[in-house]
Amino acid sequence: QVQLVESGGGLAQAGGSLRLSCAASGRTFGNYAMGWFRQAPGKEREFVAAISWSGRSTAYADSVKGRFTISRDNAKNTVYLQMNSLKPEDTAVYYCASKVNTILVVTTKERYDYWGQGTQVTVSS
Q1: Closest of 12, 10, 7 to residue 123, by C-alpha
Q2: CB count, 10 Å around CB of 1?
Q3: Residue 20 and residue 36 in contact, taking contact as beta carbons nearer than 8 Å
């Protein structure tokens, strides 16, 4: 079992920045990909960003490309999402997820094994 705990959410103004963190604990040995997803009220959970085990490969949704950056520190079992130039449409609950036993980038939510509880991000105009 892997436990994921997100932090860093909150309220930001449009154009501002927030940095989300996701700390993994439990069975964290071995290779695992990490991803960030978000879900706004009344909408499906959608892909935001993902990173491979090594950190050398990343993927982003078109809506956040150029504004968000995903990174990871395997020594700390932590993945980050730096969010810049925030927009009101970025308002959502943000979830991190892990996919065990892979070195690849994973962008499909159905393939992830473990999920955090989510952290609210609210962007005011």
Answers
A1: 12
A2: 7
A3: yes
If one counts every other C-beta atom within 10 angstroms of the C-beta of residue 124, the result is: 11
Mean residue pLDDT across the chain: 95
pLDDT given for residue 29 in this prediction:
66
pLDDT digits (tens, 9 = 90+) for 107-125: 999 999 999 999 999 999 9
Q: Return the beta strands (E) in the chain as ranges.
A: 2-7, 10-13, 18-26, 32-39, 46-51, 58-60, 68-73, 78-83, 92-100, 114-115, 119-124
The answer to whether the beta carbons of residues 10 and 18 sit under 8 Å apart is yes
For residues 22-54, one letter each, b for 16 or more C-beta atoms within 10 angstroms of the residue's C-beta and e for the rest, the string is bbbeeeeeeebbbbbbbeeeeeebebbbbbbbe
